[in-house]
């Protein structure tokens, strides 16, 4: 039985385009853990198309990255920065039909994790691939961001050496 993941995991003020619960122009994604996978169902919006009636390929890539990132959250209790993505668009994704996205961890080498992602629509695989992430400490995240990591994110970062 799938278990919902907390949409406020990153705090009530986070503005992520994919999963920010209060981002009125975002995708509004919500995630569930389903065994060794994380899943979400996405519904496109008018104006999010590339060719007429087809979900823009960049938004499909965003969905793939989001399911990969939330796979880390749901299965490891961690967040990471995307380092690479190898995606294949297999068939057009219709704008007016829901898309199920699934992610599963396929490799972990130290702080580098690769997630297999798949987008399905109407029983067909429309996109498949692998997205790789670097898990970081709070200090590493702050160096990358050039600013303090929001406190709400700290529980998802590995503690720095010397800390619990």
Can you characterise this structure?
- With 164 residues, the chain is an alpha+beta fold.
- The protein has one domain (3-156): Hotdog Thioesterase (Thiol Ester Dehydrase, Chain A, Roll), CATH 3.10.129.
- The protein contains 2 helices and 7 strands; from the N terminus they run E-E-E-H-E-E-E-E-H.
- It has helices spanning 57-76, 138-145; strands spanning 3-4, 32-34, 37-42, 80-89, 99-109, 112-121, 124-135.
- Strands 1-2-3-5-6-7-4 form a 7-stranded antiparallel β-sheet, covered by helices on one side.
- It starts with a strand and ends in a 19-residue tail after the last helix.
Features:
164 residues, alpha+beta, Thiol Ester Dehydrase, Chain A, seven-stranded antiparallel beta sheet, 17% helix, 33% strand, globular
């Amino acid at each position: 039985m799938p278990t919902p993941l907390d949409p406020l995991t990153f705090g009530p003020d986070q503005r992520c385009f994919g999963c920010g619960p209060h981002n009125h122009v975002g995708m509004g994604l919500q995630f569930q853990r389903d065994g060794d996978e994380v899943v979400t169902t996405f519904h496109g919006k008018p104006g999010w198309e590339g060719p007429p009636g087809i979900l823009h390929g960049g938004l499909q890539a965003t969905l793939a990255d989001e399911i990969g990132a939330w796979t880390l959250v749901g299965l490891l209790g961690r967040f990471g920065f995307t380092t690479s993505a190898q995606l294949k668009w297999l068939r057009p994704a219709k704008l007016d039909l829901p898309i199920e996205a699934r992610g599963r961890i396929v490799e972990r080498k130290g702080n580098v994790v690769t997630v297999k992602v798949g987008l399905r629509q109407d029983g067909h695989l429309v996109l498949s691939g692998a997205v790789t992430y670097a898990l970081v400490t709070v200090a590493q995240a702050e160096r990358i961001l050039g600013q303090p990591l929001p406190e709400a994110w700290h529980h998802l970062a590995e503690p720095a050496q010397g800390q619990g």
